[in-house]
């Protein structure tokens, strides 16, 4: 029998977001910013999804651990997430790696990024900890996961996805019994264990964990004293609890948020250029798999004060138009065409230019007569007049970062080399 609660468990929980990773598979897109700080969806950053899920779930105490090139990430959080108020028992702590335990150590792993801030967490006195990755795109109600954790009597509850067995080799994978108790946890196995009764699918870790706070502290201290540990949740903490305690799997299907138009659950690791490109273009579909217009579960972000988007000129061959595209504020489409594309804040398109299947980050300028197809433009890029990308694969590969799927990443440095 499920227990009833006098108030949501999220009110006594703290969300702790691990946002220190570089995301090296995004190549030059993360040369100057951490992966969680990468722009997404026209107006947001990747980290906004985990933070919005926490707020929308009712969690009002949040910590974010940063490390790699964190300036733009910290600046974004200071601007977008400064509405938490201590007088309402709310808190938002940004926790850069600051050598608080030892002057010689940065965060050595995901578990260490929590261990080094135990004293800060203790000051907030949360009953439960929700550990989150800061680099995935999804909508999820953590309150439902907290309820399962308490009802099951688990030492740790692990958020998981049902994935085809062939795709599970890139995840941490759980073997479970018929009651969802985890019997083994292995990182990136060549032969993943499958779900009981379903030999074609496996349970892959989402990098989301729920603990009772004091139990988590005990595990972190034990792990810190263990020689040879990598100080990692997936590699060390979770496997130890599976062997010596009770770990339970929580399926994303049970707590994912879907608006009326959303058919299935949506979760994406946008860790490669192709995955990042595809996830952004998903939003241009007539009925997108991820609904960014859901006012009941909004994705909070920095609301820039800027002018509305503008489309100008209306003559044959020089008509400002956008088809199946997302056009953000402060954009000017001047006698140009955007087709199945995302234009982030402040993008300017000159006359006779055209973009198709393009993800154009903030404050880019596209010169007159340029034609771009299947591109990602890093922020601030100025495309010269008449430049053509997406029509000659060999030429594109010599000038820009071109993926196996034919997506070209274009940065300022790459454009500078053309001049």
TrEMBL record:
Keywords: ATP-binding, Carbohydrate metabolism, Glycogen biosynthesis, Glycogen metabolism, Nucleotide-binding, Nucleotidyltransferase, Transferase. Transmembrane segments: none annotated. The record marks 67, 106 as: Could play a key role in the communication between the regulatory and the substrate sites. Residues 307-410 form the Glucose-1-phosphate adenylyltransferase/Bifunctional protein GlmU-like C-terminal hexapeptide domain. The keyword Nucleotidyltransferase applies. It holds the Pfam family Hexapep_GlmU. Pathway: Glycan biosynthesis; glycogen biosynthesis. GO terms for molecular function: glucose-1-phosphate adenylyltransferase activity. Alpha-D-glucose 1-phosphate binds at residues 107, 172, 187-188, 205. Homotetramer. Belongs to the bacterial/plant glucose-1-phosphate adenylyltransferase family. Involved in the biosynthesis of ADP-glucose, a building block required for the elongation reactions to produce glycogen. Catalyzes the reaction between ATP and alpha-D-glucose 1-phosphate (G1P) to produce pyrophosphate and ADP-Glc. This is Glucose-1-phosphate adenylyltransferase. It comes from Novosphingobium pokkalii.
